[in-house]
Amino acid sequence: MRRYELLQSIVPEITNEFVICNLGFPSQELYSIRDNDHHFYMLGSMGLSSSIGLGLSMEIEDTVISIDGDGSVLMNLGTLSTIALEDCKNFILFIVDNGSYGSTGDQPTHTAKGTSLAAIAKAAGIKSSVEVPGSAAAAELKKCLGTPGPHVIVAKVDPGSPAMTPIPLTSLAIRDRFREAIKAAKAKA
What we know:
The chain is 42% helix and 19% strand. The chain contains eight helices and eight strands. The strands form two sheets. Strands 2-1-3-4-8-7 form a six-stranded parallel sheet, sandwiched between helices. A two-stranded antiparallel sheet has the order 5-6. The longest helix is centred in the C-terminal third of the chain and has 18 residues.
């Protein structure tokens, strides 16, 4: 299973949750599978999906899911300690671990050589931290959506990406519609 198939498998579990999606191919793939105004597609800032998602989860009651990559999390390991310390019950960090920097040519990351992001998350203090094969990730996400977090799910998949077209929205359009979705959610709360 590759990231695209993994995203296809988890999208049915995501209903009204807010999603911050890692830059590059992951955002393009999620957009092509199911666009939603609750999705914030990152067009830059590698390594910050988890930080942006955590910040949002501190401000709203709705569940926030950050879809991040192993390479991005490795660039910002400090976010795992912050997630543990903030202890936001409505936050899920969903790490797609393909052992490569997929958006820059599939160069191997340290997870391809044995580094466990789930173990690092546990050591940082995130009690609900698990590594699963991609085929089990949708069931794990469903389970986590039904229990207080924070949660870290590391889904192991093979590297590689299908050809994708760029997202036809500007960064300002993505930002503005996401803000409107947040405002609407806050008004309902």
